[in-house]
Amino acid sequence: MRTLGPGSLASLLKLFLDIVYYVLWGLLGLASLIIVMIMAAGLYRLTGLSPELPGAFEQFLAAEIVVAIPMGIVALGAIIFIIDRLRRIFATLTAGDPFVPENANHLRAIAAGIAVYQVLSYASHGVIALVFTLSGSPVESGSRVAPEFSFNLGAWFAVLAFFVLAEVFREGARLRDEQKFTI
Predict the structure, then answer these.
(1) Residue 92: other Cβ atoms inside 10 A
(2) Which residues form the domain of 81?
(3) Which of 25, 37, 44, 108 is paired with 83 by a 20 to 30 Å CA distance?
């Protein structure tokens, strides 16, 4: 099986990335709907329309996972950004032209997206731990979401590797353009 061009491995990977991209947008929409429901529940209580919310909804709002939903929305946004840039790169690979200047920019953006995702992960774990501490919930045990800080060396290595690959693609595009003008 060929690796570049129509009907190649690159086109199959692009199809897979397309599916993942649209599924993630669906998840983002669902998470956003949950946030809207949480805000509506808060307004419902503030306006005094009713002293109590329906039982199942009240239990959902009491769950610790609700704290993580806003951070999850931001993380989903970062992942969607990375997947979109990968889709754009694989579109050029499917077209059979990998060394275009845009791919270097896409690779730099992916590196930045992974770095932002990692920083957001660290921040979200800190915020969740802070919320648990302020609410009196034990962080070590008894909660459904126990935040843990872990330095992901593989992700930071990927950031550096994507920056290096971006330069390789930039240089490849420059050499290809130079070759076009050589007689």
Answers:
(1) 19
(2) 9-180
(3) 37
Per-residue burial over 41-59, b = 16 or more CB atoms within 10 Å of its CB, e = otherwise: beeeeeeeeeeeeeeeeee
Number of structural domains, the chain?
Answer: 1
Dist CA 178 CA 101 (whole Å): 13
Q: Where are the alpha helices (DSSP H) in the chain?
A: 9-47, 55-62, 65-94, 101-135, 153-180
Q: Is 104 inside a domain boundary?
A: yes
Q: Is residue 114 part of a domain?
A: yes
CA distance 115 to 157: 10
Radius of gyration (C-alpha) of the chain in whole angstroms: 22
Instruction: Tell me which of 6-20, 84-98, 100-114, 140-154 is least confident.
Output: 140-154
Residue type, position 49, single letter: L
